[in-house]
Amino acid sequence: MKISFGNKVGVCPICDINCWDAFDGKPAIFPCGIKGCLHETEEFQKTIGVGQLFSDSSSGLALILES
C-alpha cells in the first residue's frame, strides 16, 4: 500500500529530507541522525539505535553458518 505524504513543500537545508504538507511542512520519515537537523532534538538523536544491538532481520552470515 502506497502512503500519501501530500505535496512536497520544501527540503530540510541540513539533512536534505523532503518536507510534506500532510505533515505540517515537516519530514514524514525519521530519523536522519545528522547533527544540527532542524527536525530532531539532540536528545532524540542520542536515542537512535540505543538498545538495538542486533538487526531485526538477523545476519546473513549467521544464517549461512547455521545451515
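Above is the first protein from milestone M3; the second protein from the same milestone is given next.
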Amino acid sequence: MSWQVVVPILSLHLAHIGFGIAEIGVVVGTFSLSMGLVELQAGVIAAAIGRRRQLLGALVANALCLGAAAAGEARALVAVALTAVGAARGVLIPPLHATVADSATPEDHGRAFGTFWLCTSFAALAGPALGGFAASRIGERAPFVAAALFSLAAIPLLAGRPMPGRAPARASFRDFIVYLSTASVARLGVAILLCYSVAGIWTTFLPLYASRQGASVLFIGWIFAIQGGMYAVMQVPTGRLVARGHGRWLMLAAIAGTAGTVLAVPLVHTVPLLLAAGAVYGTAWGIMPVMFAMLVTRGVPPDRYTAAMSVFNSAIDLGLFAGPLLGATVARASLTAPFLLALPIGLAAAAVGPAAAFRRSGQDG
C-alpha cells in the first residue's frame, strides 16, 4: 500500500507541478533505477546488519522520503525525494521476498509466493482506488501522505516477529556478480527486465493518456484498481501451474497479454474500454511475479535466496527504469508513441524469456 496508493496520481502530480511528458518519464525511470541499483547490494546489507534491521530501517526511510515528496514544492526537491524513495524500497524488497522463500520448502515455493502476492495484490486493488479517491477529495499530495503512514504502520508488525531463515555469514558484491554472471540467471534477468520495461510504460504513460481521454483522477484510480483485482485472481492458480512445470507457456501468455494490451492503448478512447484494458493487463501481469520468483529461486540454496531475489527485484526495477526512459525519448512525437514500443520490447521478451525458463528448468533436473 505504501506505493500502490501513489501509482495512479504520480504522473499527473508531476505534470501539475511543471514536469513535461518526457521529464516525467525520466523522473519515474530514475526512481526505478535508484531502486534497482540499491537492490544489487541488498544481500551485502542483510549479511552486515541482519534482515530485521534492514527491513525496519528501510520502512522508516521510505516513510520519511514519501513525506518529503508530499511536502515538496520545487521540482528538484520532488525528484530527489522520489529517487530516495526508490533507494529505500531497494533496501526493503529483496530481504522481504527472501524471507518469504525461507518460510517454505523449495517444493512449496509456488504456494508460498502465490499466497504472498495474493496478499500484496489486495494493495494493488485497494491502493489505487484509495489514492484516486484521496486525490479527488483532498488533493494530489494526500496519497503521498497516506503512503508514508502505511509504511510506518508496517513497523510494529515486523518489530516483534521472528524472521525465518538467516542471511549468509559472509557476503560480498563480488560474490553476487559471480552469481549473476551464471548463464541461466543472466537470461532470466534479461527476460524480467524486458517484461517490466513494458510495465513501466503502462504505469507511467497510461494516467496521462487516460486524462487526455477525459477520465478523472477517480476513474484512473479505478483502472488500476481493476487491474489489481485481476492481478489478485491470478496468484494462486499461477503458483500451482508453475509448480507443475508450465512456466514456459505461462511466460508467453504473460508477455502477449501485457505487451498486446499496452500496444492497443492508442486505439482505446473511452473510459469503459480503458477499464477493460486494465482488467486484461492485470490478468496477464498477475502471472509474472510468482512465475519469475519460482524460476529465479529454483535450485538455489537457502543462503542465496537474498541474492536470488536481488536479481529478481533489480531486473524488475531496471526494467521499470528502461521503460519510462525509452517512452520519454519518443513522447516528444506524441503521447501515444510510448505505447508502440511494446511491440519490439514484447517480441524481444518472447524470444529470450521462454528459452530462459526452459533451460533453467532443464538444468534443475
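Note on the second protein: Residues 360-365 have pLDDT under 50 and may be disordered.
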